[in-house]
Write the structure tokens for this entry.
Amino acid sequence: MGLISPPPHHDIYSIEDLSQLIFDLKNSNTDARISVKLVSEAGVGTVAAGVAKAGAQVILISSFDGGTGAAPRNSIYNAGLPWELGVAEAHQTLIMNGLRDKVILETDGKLMTGRDVAVACMLGAEEFGFATAPLVTLGCVMMRVCNLDTCPVGIATQNPQLRKRFKGKPEYVINFMRFVAQELREYMAKLGVATVDELVGRTDLLKKKEGIVGSRARKVDLTNILGNPYVGEKLAGYRKKQVYDFELEKTVDERVLMKKLKSALSTGQKRSIAIDVSNVDRTLGTIFGAAITRAFPEGLKEDTFTVSCTGSGGQSFGAFIPGGLTLELIGDSNDYFGKGLSGGKLIVYPPTGVQFKAEENIIIGNVALYGATSGKAFINGVAGERFCVRNSGATAVVEGVGDHGCEYMTGGRVVILGPTGKNFAAGMSGGIAYVLDEGRDLYKRLNKSLVSFEEVTDKYDVQELKSMIWEHVAYTNSEKGKKILDHFGEYLPKFKKIMPHDYRRMMNTIIQMEEKGLSSEQAQIEAFYANIHQ
């Protein structure tokens, strides 16, 4: 299916959102360096300062050049600025705000030679990324068809026949990088600099080229880049990095889960515990989930570990949790509920005895199940905006969603037992959504550019829908779910099946190919080419 590259990040709308994402990632792997990639543009220094305060350990300034051949043409030619501008601004702004010693500054985007590395280093970069040039050494001919699965040299393709053409060897990349390093050492020797650390931020070793031909080029003012006031002793402190303290020892996972479930974790023994939570308990379950994955990379049986929580869940409740871990929440939850769900199970419902109707009230915040890849979620209440954005494999049942539901969804199954907001299924290229359209007005809120909708009539679809609702009722005791099951024949005609055009066409073609005797893998490849050329 055709996808957008790079995809939009609909979980980030502010520096606070980015700060939460950094915290989530640190919880998912406590030993990892968290790197944030920023596009070189005017004002990137201010953003870099915010990123440093949010706890990122590496800030990557990426230029307008280089990049994937799958990117849209307007992104390739009209987005971003040269890395020189972004690196200089970020470096100086970080020093100005006393943050340069908290982060490593990296840059990339068509770095080709040792000279490029030397200049980047003198402007403030400490690490350097290479992609285009090493790809060329491996045989890339820059056809820019990375998204079409037709790469003639077998690099950007899943087609086994094309992959046979790949002639690249690790030695080619090693040789290239050695030449880059050798050229860098030659420039450093000419400048009288012994180590890369000594070269960082030395803009005093750069000067404007003289005798430039062309009136416009001569007018370029490089004062703010070359006139960097932060050189010499003022820069010396940057090397002693002050690593950001995320205070992970204060999380519920470290204080409670890792201690109470430690013995069971070592053996995979089935265990259940109950805890109280509040909305300051962010990213609950993620550190413990990572420990499960490390201990049992092959996975665990469903519900091996069950954590029953009472109260208000904080942001990113259950983010990235793997199979075998079930989080049950009796209360409500904030934004990013189930972000990146990776096989685990999430259940949320209101406490018993509440006076309001669950199906009419919001119980979880925005961007729930963002980027989920597998697992299940059962939500007895209404979700906020951008529900299941970029879901690629999880199944979820919810009783209503806000605007932009199932946006950019590429897989999985979603059942919505209530109303949706506007722009539903925008950019949806895979998976299926079953929506209860009691008001017969879903078509007004549906983004029909990539999807079609129809009544649920296929026997398999009916069985799948009923099974998911039944499971939802079993876990959450949903009154709305019970009512639907008790009068299923009456409610079934009110459900709409939302399915992307491309996905439907692909599935039909795959079935046709398999009927001709092709294997499942070969049928998918042939179906892809059949549809890409339509």
